[in-house]
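User:
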Amino acid sequence: MKISEIASHIRERVPSTEIRAEDYVSTDNMRPNFGGIESSSSKPPPGNVTAYQVGDILLSNIRPYFRKTWLATHEGGCNADVLCIRANPEKCVPKYLYYLFTTDNFVNDYLKSCKGAKMPRGDVQRLLDYEFDLPDLPTQLRIAGVICKSYCHRYFFSTKCSFDNCSSIVRSSSAPLALSSARRDLKPETFSLNSSAVIGTYSIFTSKYCPAESV
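Assistant: Predicted structure:
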């Protein structure tokens, strides 16, 4: 399955005057290594910006090796150096596609399309032509949910989780979705480090970085 078969590159433009500063996304306020975004400290420049919606995936197209990618949790606008990819909800769960974009396989493939020495940019068509395995929608939701909580778990406890191994685990009828083996139990109450402070921080982190299942 190609990304172009289940998602679109959004080019809808709106006047920047319609976008609040806190809803404006540029490469400057995107955090590297899939760290999301920071609030913009300045208003969008005069002219038009690309309109994004909840569930859209924004990727910095300048120096993609910085891995600046964000799954939108609100509406807003982004500049021309940020790609806006929108999944077709009848075919693909946005969160599943977002996690696909975080894989080394995708990033390394996309980097091959980059041109330019100082400020290399990727080729959008290369992104749209990327081929991957797409399960049915219920399985996508399960995989996305497991990966999201696994990333939060890894953040605090240095566990190892990836898109591929979570996908294979969820698809195995004999494997529990909780990933209880190999230090991958995702239930906060069963963590070996079970202080209320740690669990509280974990819960806050989860709610912040794991968007609702509808996204």
